[in-house]
Amino acid sequence: DAGVTQSPTHLIKTRGQQVTLRCSPKSGHDTVSWYQQALGQGPQFIFQYYEEEERQRGNFPDRFSGHQFPNYSSELNVNALLLGDSALYLCASSLGGVNSPLHFGNGTRLTVT
Amino acid sequence: GESVGLHLPTLSVQEGDNSIINCAYSNSASDYFIWYKQESGKGPQFIIDIRSNMDKRQGQRVTVLLNKTVKHLSLQIAATQPGDSAVYFCADLHGSGNTGKLIFGQGTTLQVKP
A88: which of A37, A67, B3, B58 fits an S-S bond (Cβ 3.0–4.6 Å)? Predict the structure, then answer.
């Protein structure tokens, strides 16, 4: 039973570019959340997708957008990259409708130069 | 504002001793709490959770205690092993029906000395 998988594992981009990160949820999960984790910090909530719609959003600018597909997989897009966007981006999946643990992938390490 | 905080950024224990990691939260409406373990280069790994209608929950070698009066929770690890070395985060869920977001603390680094 595969857990949450994310791709790519590492990515280097230049300031101003755009990036797309991908996530496949744990089997049986229908909800995907994205988090940004700066070095030495706890993860910060970006947004959550359920039934292909953004259900809740954290304090991130509109440069951060996402999508959920019918198979529950998800993408995170970041436009006009800034140096400060360098971080570990974590995807977590869970079952919607019930407070239950989020299961995290190992993340995508994004470096913006 | 909302926040979740840990009392110590680093905790160093001897192998075989018990470890206690503390966490304070600010949102009185929080009703679901989770502890995660994060090893270097990996994502957070679920350890144990507790709902606000409980004050104690036990797992394998781990116990979580919740004190809603002072908005404090702790993670106890029995017979700490080298493999327990990692960063530990407490998180609380804001919102119900799993529509909410997890608010994480800064993390406590547990170092286990052989």
Answer: A37
